[in-house]
Every structure is written in structure tokens, then in C-alpha cells.
Amino acid sequence: MMYRRNRAPMITILVLLFVLASTVTLMAKMKNINTRKAYELIDERDGDSDFVILDVRTPKEFAEGYVENAVNIDFYEDVFPDELDGLDRDKTYLIYCRSGSRSGKTFKMMENLGFKDVYNMKGGIESWRADYPLVR
User: Fold this and answer.
1) What is the helix (H) or strand (E) element at residue 109, kind and residue range?
2) What is the edge-to-edge ordering of all strands in the sheet holding 51-55?
3) What are the φ and ψ backbone dihedral angles of 27, each rounded to 5 degrees?
């Protein structure tokens, strides 16, 4: 006769691990959003000091027009990773670049650095300017 183990404790542990992983994922708000959702997010967080719009283009690109209240940190600067690392991880960030490539990379960097509430605006400023105003 073969010995058969009770599998109930193992199944219970697996279910608990799944629930825990799901909860952690829900707590983190790392999302790619379109410009309409970005506009809505900016509108609902207007005046909130814990919300930061982060433009990762060059200063020259930034000077050509940016989303109102955006802070510019140049993706191509050697100190860029250090500047990201120095940001407050408890704040909410909306990041964008020209077309979405640099902000997509920044998004991943921020995720790896432990940021929990980051939104990447897909299509960048090119998509934004089609429907929404820029500050010049």
C-alpha cells in the first residue's frame, strides 16, 4: 500500500501566497495610460503636492512646450538614475517624454527602484499636443 499525503495544507499555502501576491500587485499602481486618462489624472490631482508630473526629455525639448506644472529631468544626463533614486517614493508620478520610449524606460527604472504609484503617458508629448495645451 502506497502512502498518501494530505495535500490540504499545501493547497492552503498556495492559495494564501496567491492572495498575498494579488494584494501586493493591487497596492502598486504602475500603469501605462493614454493622454485622456493622463489629463483626467492631472485634473483630479490638481494642487496635490504628492502628485508630480515628470518630463524626461532634454531641456531643449522641454523649452519647446511641456505639460503645465511638469518637472524636467533629462533622461540622457549621466546623473539621471541618481536623480530618480532621490525622488520621494511615497508620491504619485505621471511620466512622459516625446513619444513614449524614454518614459517607458523610466517607468521600468522606477518600478525597479521600488516606486509604487507611477503612470506612464503612452505616446508622450506628441500624443498630448494633439488634444491638450502646452506651456511654452
Assistant:
1) helix 101-112
2) 29-33, 117-121, 92-96, 51-55, 70-72
3) -70, -35
C-alpha to C-alpha distance for 112 and 106, rounded to whole angstroms: 10
Q: What gap in Å lies between CA 65 and CA 77, rounded to an integer?
A: 20
104 φ, ψ (degrees, to nearest 5) = -65, -40
Topology given in CATH for the domain delimited by 29-128: Oxidized Rhodanese; domain 1 (3.40.250)
Question: Taking the domains of the chain in order of start, what are their residue ranges?
Answer: 29-128
Q: Is the pTM of this model over 0.85?
A: no
Q: Which backbone phi and psi does 88 adopt, to 5 degrees?
A: -70, 115
Residue-by-residue pLDDT tens, the chain, 136 positions:
555 566 666 555 555 555 555 444 444 579 999 999 999 999 999 999 999 999 999 999 999 999 999 999 999 999 999 999 999 999 999 999 999 999 999 999 999 999 999 999 999 999 999 999 999 9
Catalytic residues: 97
